[in-house]
Fold this sequence. Notes:
- The protein is α/β, with parallel strands linked by helices.
- It is 39% helix and 18% strand.
- The chain has helices at 35-40, 44-50, 79-91, 103-113, 128-132, 134-146, 156-167, 171-178, 186-189, 210-216, 236-247, and strands at 2-7, 13-19, 23-28, 53-58, 97-101, 121-124, 196-201, 220-225.
Amino acid sequence: MQNWTFKTTDGIALHVREIGAGRPLILLHGYFSEADTNWIKYGHAAVLAEAGFRVIMPDLRAHGLSDKPHDPIHYPKDILANDQFALIDHLGLGDFDLGGYSLGGRTVARMLAKGCTPRRVVISGMGLEGLSDTGKRAGHFRHVLENLGKHERGSPAFMAEAFLKTTGGDPVALLRILDTFVDTPEDVLRSFDFPIGVICGDADSDNGSAAALAELVPRGQLITVPGNHMSAVIKAELGLAIRDFLLEEGI
């Protein structure tokens, strides 16, 4: 496992983990999470590296070991997508695959909307509403972060706060991330002419309907794995589904 950092366009340092050699695959983690928890801890990165991928896993701005500035100037609209364009430029990548989970999947969609041209795409832990109407999910997390320590035990907000504690997230920086969200309208999603694996837990509707998203994008393929939005990440089937989709012939 290699660990390195680079500075993106506004001087923010992003931490990157990398494993494997072969075809480049950029994987983006979810909100409150980081590369280690989303991709490494439960074996997904290792499975993909063994399948012949060079797995490149940045910690998104305000997450993990990347910088977590508090100044709003560092959180313009679409900055997460722009950070990944800077990463691609830094590495000199021309032919690569691209995937993300939850917030990572939303960031992938924004990259496609802004002209990114990967070979194949994985959008996981994400449904249509989570891309076309980001305000609902942003509102949920704003409520979580602005009321820490006050959530009813067992509620979705309580569980989100518990996860935040396990990853050591910075609440101020994470609130700023919500201000960067941009909706991706359905007509833009229909223009995504790439093989897109929409991979989602069979009990996950946190970001709307994955089936509706897979049906909307021209070359979408719905792939379900066991679990809900949180538990699907810890199951081996997620990494295996990503691997199998990226290696599938004839799509």
